Amino acid sequence: MTDDLTTPRGIADHHLDQLAAHDPMTSAWLGLHPGDDRQPDLSPEGFEAHAELARRTLAVLGAAPATDDPAERDCGRLLRERLTAELAMHDSGEDFRRLRTIGGHVHQVRDIFTLMPTATDEDWAAVAGRLRNLPAALDGYRATLGEGVSRGLLAAPRQAARVIDQLTGWTGEGTGSAGWFTEFVAGGTDRLRPELGEAARQATAAVAGFRDWLRDSYAPATADTRDAVGRERYLRAARFNTGADLDLDEAYAWAWSEFHRTLGELRAEAEQVLPGAPLLAAMQHAEDHGHAVKGAEAARDWLQQLMDDAISALDGRQFDFSGPIRAVESQLAPVGSSGGPYYQGPSLDFSRPGRTYLPTLGRETFSTWQLVSIWYHEGVPGHHLQLAQWVAVADRLSRYQVTDGIVSANIEGWAMYAERLMDDLGHYAVPEHRLGYLDGQLLRTMRVILDIGLHLELAIPADSGFHPGERWTPELAAEFLATYNGSPVARRDSEIDRYLGWPGQAIGYKLGERAWLQGREAAKLRRGAAFDLKEWHMKALSQGSFGLDDLVDNLAGL
After folding, report:
1. What is the dihedral of CA 537, 540, 543, 546, to 10 degrees?
2. CA-based nearest residue to 255, from 553, 534, 544, 510
3. What pLDDT does 454 receive?
4. Which of 95, 147, 170, 516 is the most exposed place for a label (fewest CB within 10 A)?
5. How many whole angstroms separate alpha carbon 201 and alpha carbon 181?
6. CA 448 to chain centre
7. Bond prior to 381 in cis (omega within 30° of 0)
């Protein structure tokens, strides 16, 4: 597609090209500009340049002639909504205090290396250059956070403390290792290994210095900052993450009803795992006595086989897997990552395939009772199928719609839909695996309750069965998770850190799933006997990103 600045799709792709030229993280994600050794510009000037690009694009879009092409209108609506939501976050000063345990600015300086090719001397030379540029990137971010301090825009103490711990993990000080960067470059070519080793040591030292500044200077300044962001900031963040103006009170009430429904189903399944036992005892039984894999590498291989088997079972029946979308790799997450598994999408040319990541959290034994549904979510038919299919049809949409225009609640909602579809198709034949699926469903429902409840400090309903009438605090959230969720303590703690540091994101899972299910049922009603689920799936997966304000209507019309 050419950069025709008279059409929304041309304007959107021109914006993406400009963004990739400005931001090396975007460029690396897309697989563009090989040999680029820049780090993201995390200085105040870097964030302002990003915002100015959004303003220019909106001005061009506003001046473009009207169009009757539905595909062009969809792209234009998405571009306008996404850039407006981005600017609302920027203009309110969120960049000055975005220090959090997952999806934070600081994580980019390490995550960018996992997006780089490492096959040749030239590839590794770019890695070495990027390592040498890491100290300046952290200096820029120190300036941004320092500006936040001067403006009274700070992260909460909890987020600062957890990021400090993460950075210590990167350096290897907590485990006595040489650190993540040194371990990463150990696979470099012989000719460049000395240069890579020295660059890795410089990067590690820079991370340690930034960590010390956070601990000694920044964290004390956050002492009076509250975890809860309040309704105004929450609505702005929720719009950015869901592409919708939500009725938060309706969503909170709906989540409680969904909680009680799912809890009843979960308890019935627990009876199949350990008859007569309490819910958490059945989960612990699944953890201790259910199927498990010994060793991190073996767990990675087991999860790879799970995804390969899912492709074989679904191809030609529920979906069409063709060409590069069949390629997905199971990986182990680097030390110092978030406690939850995650997915990284393919580059635009598929030279880097989609990858799922399993955090080991120091474990040597990996119980699979929860992992099956999680990998249907992260891999196939969840994130990987949707995001790889989007890349495959990017030339028919716009590259922007399937990359930077992604709406979190859309993709998380699809991944939740994928978990449920696998249940409908009978893929949780082992009771402990279905217990894990329902446990995950309940957790994502609890996310809506806790994310909204904590940040708005709402009251717990009288019929909740859990501290009725009290208002949410992190301590009550921890007790809520401990009472109903079967995850290890470290994972539950990571969940609370996530909600408090990334307001409005965790609600997108269940609210997005609700939109996908509503859209499918509306399409079935409209098409009647002519409705074909496989056909609908592939059309739905080929339409690109929509916010929740638009998703149901678009799905219903397929």
Report:
1. -150
2. 510
3. 98
4. 147
5. 8
6. 16
7. yes
Amino acid, single-letter form, for residue 308: D
**For strand 354-358 and strand 328-332, is the pairing parallel, antiparallel, or unpaired?**
parallel
Query: Over the stretch 65-86, which tens digit does the pLDDT of each residue have?
Result: 999 999 999 999 999 999 999 9
CA 85 to chain centre: 18
Q: Which of 414, 417, 427 is nearest to 544 (CA)?
A: 414
Q: Which single residue is written with the structure tokens 């409209």?
A: 526
Cα–Cα distance measured from residue 471 to residue 347, given in angstroms and rounded to the nearest whole number:
44
Closest-CA residue to 94 (of 216, 232, 224): 232
Half-sphere exposure of 299 (CA within 13 A, CB side): 27
**pTM > 0.85: yes or no:** yes
Collapsed DSSP state (helix, strand, coil) of residue 335: coil
Check: CB of residue 135 under 8 Å from CB of residue 202. yes
Tokens, residue 62: 């506003």
Two tokens, residue 397: 């949409």
CA distance from start to end of the chain: 24
pLDDT tens per residue, range 131-168: 999 999 999 999 999 999 999 999 999 999 999 999 99
Residue keyed to tokens 């994600």: 29
Q: Are 292 and 368 in contact (CB under 8 A)?
A: yes
- Measured over the CA atoms of residue 217, residue 219, residue 223 and residue 224, the dihedral's sign is positive
